[in-house]
Amino acid sequence: MKVVIEEDKCCAAGQCVAAAPDVFDQRDDDGIVVLLTVHPPDDLAEGVRDAVAMCPAVAIRVEQ
Ligand code: SF4
């Protein structure tokens, strides 16, 4: 799994961090998403898919 984020779409809602805190974080100053790992391990895949589904800005996608 490869995770791709589009920072310019992110509206700092934070749902991705709630769904997969080992994969996503938010910048302290403006809340924009920070990708902690581009290739998360399989045990985090479900959380990543949840984040993709929950992101209101459609700023996250998964490749492969
Ligand atoms: S859920 Fe989407 S909009 Fe919210 S912080 Fe994460 S990437 Fe940004």
From TrEMBL:
One Pfam match: Fer4_13
Q: Which cofactor does it need?
A: [3Fe-4S] cluster
| Keyword annotations of the record | 3Fe-4S, Electron transport, Iron, Iron-sulfur, Metal-binding, Transport
What GO molecular functions are on record for this protein?
Answer: 3 iron, 4 sulfur cluster binding; electron transfer activity; iron ion binding
What the protein does? Ferredoxins are iron-sulfur proteins that transfer electrons in a wide variety of metabolic reactions.
Could you tell me which SUPFAM superfamilies the record lists for this protein? 4Fe-4S ferredoxins
Q: Does the keyword Nucleus apply?
A: no
What protein am I looking at?
Ferredoxin
Keyword check for Metal-binding:
yes
The 4Fe-4S ferredoxin-type domain is annotated at 1-29
| InterPro entries to which the protein is assigned, alphabetical | 3Fe4S_ferredoxin (IPR001080), 4Fe4S_Fe-S-bd (IPR017896), Fe-S_cluster_ET (IPR051269)
